[in-house]
What does this fold into?
Amino acid sequence: MQRIHAELHVVFGAGQVGQQLAQRLLDAGKRVRIIRRSAHGILSGAESMNGDAGDADFCLRAAAGAQVVYHCMNAAYDAKLWTAELPRLMRNLIAAAGRVQARLVVLDNLYMLGRPQGRMLDEDCPVAPCSRKGAVRAQVAELLLSAHQRGEVQATIGRASDFYGPGGVQTFLGDHFWPAALAGRMVWLPFDPDAVHTYHYIPDVAAGLAALGCAGADVCGKPWMLPCSTAGSLRQMVARIASHLGHRIRLGCISRWLLGAAGPFVPLVRELNEMRYQWDGPFVVDDRCMRARLGLVPTDETEAVAATVAWARRHYA
It folds into this structure.
């Protein structure tokens, strides 16, 4: 079957997850349309539309003909911007996907779950945000699930913790980490590198979203924890990275006092400070439901780290 007659999957957002999701869908024989603000980095084999998803009419045009719509967009890392922009983006995509009768698959994080309180994070965890950004995420998730319950759209959510992997420039193992790590300089972190924490490999996140888009209707109406390896510390992961690089990577932790003092003057530090609770104790995701329902398992950690290092050598050369 020629791709032009294949099922159309529309990906809103071509960042560190959306681009890999689009490629995975293309590899599966789907027709793919990528929606982004600019024409930069067009993916071979995919259609492209440029525009503002804050415009409801544009979203409807972009979703035309789709069987599945994916929401992989985010606003800049600022609680005020999230409050203003994320509900509008969600409403627009709910309306567009509902109008064309497409399934809506949304990429989300874990902010709305708040502090783990000693338990693993799974699909049954209560929504209990303890941050401004978590409250916004809770609001937009409620918009989506309520619309599904009312029959306005068929929707599902894939949730993940912090990312790493090829293309992950906006992660802790991204633009801040790699230039220093590759050069053998100290890498300074705003949290405890020995905290037990789940890190999601970006290709596994893309695989999970694609699976939610293609699975039976029973995956809709609820969130799913995307595939992830066993939780460990960032220091352990960095040691594996260092073994591939052939030199030691030194890690330093910026003190709470210094971060607190800098917060009022450095917007990004202020935004990171309120999320630091995620490294105050074990922050561990349980992905057993997705493994059982969709048969997905995460990429072997050795393979994932090797691919990440190879990408970083190219990207940060």
In short: The chain has a mean pLDDT of 94. Residues 3-160+201-228+286-298 form a domain with the Rossmann fold fold (CATH 3.40.50.720). The longest strand covers residues 31-36. DSSP finds eleven helices and eleven strands in the chain.
